[in-house]
Design the sequence.
């Protein structure tokens, strides 16, 4: 039966003083698929292992269903937490067949070995592996092993399923297929799921709820749509996909509530636009300092360089064929650029193009930072310490 998970102000300090978790607090309702998204080192694995009971928390509280599984005094071991885990490296028993690996998960249900093996075969059938049930892990491909691991995790009808980047070792094509399988199998089973990844597209594709971790802190929690449209911080905006960033100055109130009229600076003769006011930026109608405009790829439309609609004019630096369309990199005067600009046709490098921006997908933040976003993320992290 799917259980509720409550994570309350959990902190984890490793021996040596590394402060890996800084008080994430959230509730996952029964049957919810929650994805924890964050860059490498943000504490995802630590949080999952703490929920599992493999790591002891330093302070805070964890509740699974009605049971307090960990707080300052209590620490239930993993086998008493009614949960199952799927890891990046599958962790199958090498000396057991696929079928026995799955059946093994039923050992604590005290059912006859014969019945356990029958159930296991049924579960392997659901992940499309019944025909390989007698093979050993070494005789299976990575994707097949991952499906065995998933079957094993789902067979026990456990209250909570924990997944630590289970797709990261698979190649792109298989990863997408396995993502779809996980999504449907887990939802069919109705399990409460905590799934961690550093991949924003994977997170958005899978999740009912996404929690964004930065330096051991939960910086935003919401549906993928919430997080995409209203990122709580510049860090979240960057980590969930931007076409680019521009410095802008505020030139007046916006025509719609929640927007400001801004003028990009340092990118040549650009036209002002009404941009959405980002979280934490409210009430600052005309800050003296320039603001930063975070531009979602969905807000960028290609047009003629001479077009009235163009907010910016730049030159094509790269054009990549993506099957359905082309994706351009457009360089702007002053060195800024926009990536992932969709075009129906191939546009040769060096072509002057216009860029029309949709203010709804352009989000204003107060912190003006320079440099490529990866470097700025580092900087943003350092500043939080
Ligand atoms: P993620 O899974 O998001 O990449 P981790 O939870 O693995 O992040 O790590 C979070 C932080 O805790 C990192 O700074 C990492 O170096 C540190 N860390 C992880 N495991 C240990 C450990 N066993 N001992 C000390 N520090 C650790
Ligand atoms: Mg990890």
Sequence:
């Amino acid at each position: 039966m799917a259980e509720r998970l409550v994570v309350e102000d959990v902190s984890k300090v490793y021996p040596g003083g590394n402060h890996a978790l800084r008080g994430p607090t959230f509730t996952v309702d029964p049957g919810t698929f929650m994805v924890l998204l964050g860059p490498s080192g943000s504490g995802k694995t630590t949080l999952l292992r703490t929920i599992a009971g493999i790591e002891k928390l330093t302070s805070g509280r964890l509740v699974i269903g009605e049971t307090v599984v960990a707080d300052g005094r209590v620490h239930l071991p993993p086998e008493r937490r009614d949960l199952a885990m799927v890891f990046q490296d599958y962790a199958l028993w090498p000396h057991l067949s696929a079928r026995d690996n799955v059946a093994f998960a039923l050992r604590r249900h005290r059912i006859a070995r014969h019945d356990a093996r029958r159930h296991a075969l049924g579960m392997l059938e659901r992940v499309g592996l019944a025909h390989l049930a007698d093979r050993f892990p070494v005789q299976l491909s990575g994707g097949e092993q991952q499906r065995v691991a998933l079957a094993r995790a789902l067979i026990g009808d456990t209250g909570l399923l924990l997944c630590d980047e289970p797709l990261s070792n698979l190649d792109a094509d298989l990863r997408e297929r396995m993502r779809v399988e996980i999504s449907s199998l887990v939802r069919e089973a109705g399990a409460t799921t905590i799934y961690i990844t550093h991949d924003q597209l994977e997170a958005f594709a899978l999740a009912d709820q996404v929690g964004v971790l930065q330096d051991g802190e939960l910086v935003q929690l919401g549906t993928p749509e919430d997080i995409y449209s209203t990122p709580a911080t510049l860090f979240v905006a960057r980590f969930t996909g931007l076409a680019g960033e521009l410095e802008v100055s505020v030139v007046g109130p916006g025509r719609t509530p929640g927007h400001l009229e801004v003028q990009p600076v340092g990118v040549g003769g650009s036209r002002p636009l009404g941009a959405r006011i980002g979280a934490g930026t409210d009430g600052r109608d005309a800050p003296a300092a320039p603001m930063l405009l975070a531009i979602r790829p969905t807000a960028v439309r290609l047009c003629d360089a001479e077009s009235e609609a163009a907010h910016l004019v730049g030159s094509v630096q790269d054009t990549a064929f993506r099957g359905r369309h082309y994706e351009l990199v457009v360089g702007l005067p002053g060195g800024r650029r926009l990536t992932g600009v969709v075009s129906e046709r191939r546009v040769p490098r060096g072509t002057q193009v216009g860029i029309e921006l949709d203010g709804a997908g352009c989000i204003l933040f107060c912190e003006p930072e320079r440099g490529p976003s990866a470097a700025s993320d580092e900087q943003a992290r350092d500043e939080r310490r």
